[in-house]
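Let us work through a complete example step by step.
Step 1: write down the sequence.
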Amino acid sequence: MEPKPARVRILDAAHELMLTVGLARATTKEIARAAGCSEAALYKYFDSKEELFVRVLTERLPRLKPLLSSLAAEPGQGTLAGNLTEIARQAALFYEQSFPIAASLYAESQLKQRHYEVLRTLGSGPHRPIQELDAYLRAEQAAGRVRGDADTFAAASLLLGACAQRAFAYDATESGERPPVDDFAERLAQTLLGGISGAPASG
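Step 2: predict the structure and record it as tokens.
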């Protein structure tokens, strides 16, 4: 079996360390050591830990951004209910996996500020999925499948906000179990459709 390329090993090691010790404590030195390479080699592939964080989110977690981009580019495909259900499912899984990684950002304001500056430079950040879902809903609005008077930004915020909330809200329950993702996504999509759809909720 051929060894994995260095970039793949670095991403795998970064993903594992960010999950287990958190973003703040996952240093490039530790990531390089876990990947079996030098810190200098790590910087051949990634300009900073912040860029590495973004690449972990986009290459190792559920692919939310490509889904939103492809739907916005071709509105009218599939059913609105089916599309929103899949968006909610991918978003719920994305936030479930990204929350443990990103949580430590909120404990250190300087770290958060530094990361957000790099995220903006890379055209990324936690606001982007809301903007992209809003763009998709506006495209469906133009196609007549979303009501003309629907607030697409509020709808996008509600759906993604609920998916993000699922990532941590249920840890406090006695069982500590999250609602099953498929059922959660379907119920969320159907409820949202009741407020914005230009057709019956099945459409």
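Step 3: interpret the result. The mean pLDDT is 85.
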